[in-house]
């Protein structure tokens, strides 16, 4: 774990894979863009209308997060399964790890929606 994540060759491969899927699969592109827009709209500090540049920036961060989850087992070299826990369901990520977009189930990745404790 000597080098930073963004400069790691395996992370770059993961990011290129996810970005390539985004560019080739219109349904994945739409679902990623929609998820990005939902996050941007929900921001209580938003002071302007959402522009396409905002969506592109947000999309990059979501694709980076997907790439990181693919890369994590190689980076940590520990364990066999990794669980992404979140307070909301995230259909695009759930479909991604189930292999919906590329036909490749990511069996070492899981998604756990935490209960609402409010």
TL;DR?
The chain has 118 residues and is mainly alpha-helical. It has 4 helices and 2 strands.
Task: For this entry, give a set of tags.
single chain, 118 residues, mainly alpha, two-stranded parallel ribbon, 4 helices
Number of domains: 1
**Computed Rg:** 15 Å
User: What is the general shape?
Assistant: globular
Quaternary structure classification: single chain
Helix percent band:
55-70%
What string, H for helix and E for strand, traces the elements in order?
Answer: HHHEHE
- Output the number of helix runs: 4
For the residues shown, what is the average pLDDT? 87
> Which structural class should the secondary elements be placed in?
mainly alpha
Question: Can you walk me through this structure?
Answer:
By secondary structure, this protein is mainly α. The chain has one domain. It is 55% helix and 8% strand. It has four helices and two strands, in the order H-H-H-E-H-E. It has helices spanning 9-24, 26-42, 52-76, 91-97, and strands at residues 82-86, 109-113. It has a two-stranded parallel ribbon with strand order 1-2. Strand 1, helix 4 (91-97) and strand 2 (109-113) form a beta-alpha-beta unit. The longest helix is centred in the middle third of the chain and has 25 residues, at 52-76. It is globular and about 45 Å long. The N and C termini lie far apart (38 Å).
């Amino acid at each position: 774990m000597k080098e930073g994540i963004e400069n790691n060759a395996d992370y770059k491969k993961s990011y290129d894979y996810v970005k390539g899927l985004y560019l080739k699969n219109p349904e994945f592109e739409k679902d990623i863009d929609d998820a990005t827009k939902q996050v941007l709209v929900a921001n209580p500090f938003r002071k302007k209308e959402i522009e396409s540049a905002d969506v592109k920036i947000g999309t990059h961060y979501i694709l980076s997060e997907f790439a990181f989850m693919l890369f994590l087992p190689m980076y940590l070299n520990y364990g066999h399964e990794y669980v992404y826990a979140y307070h909301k369901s995230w259909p695009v990520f759930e479909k991604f790890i189930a292999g919906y977009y590329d036909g490749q189930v990511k069996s070492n990745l899981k998604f756990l929606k935490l209960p609402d404790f409010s």
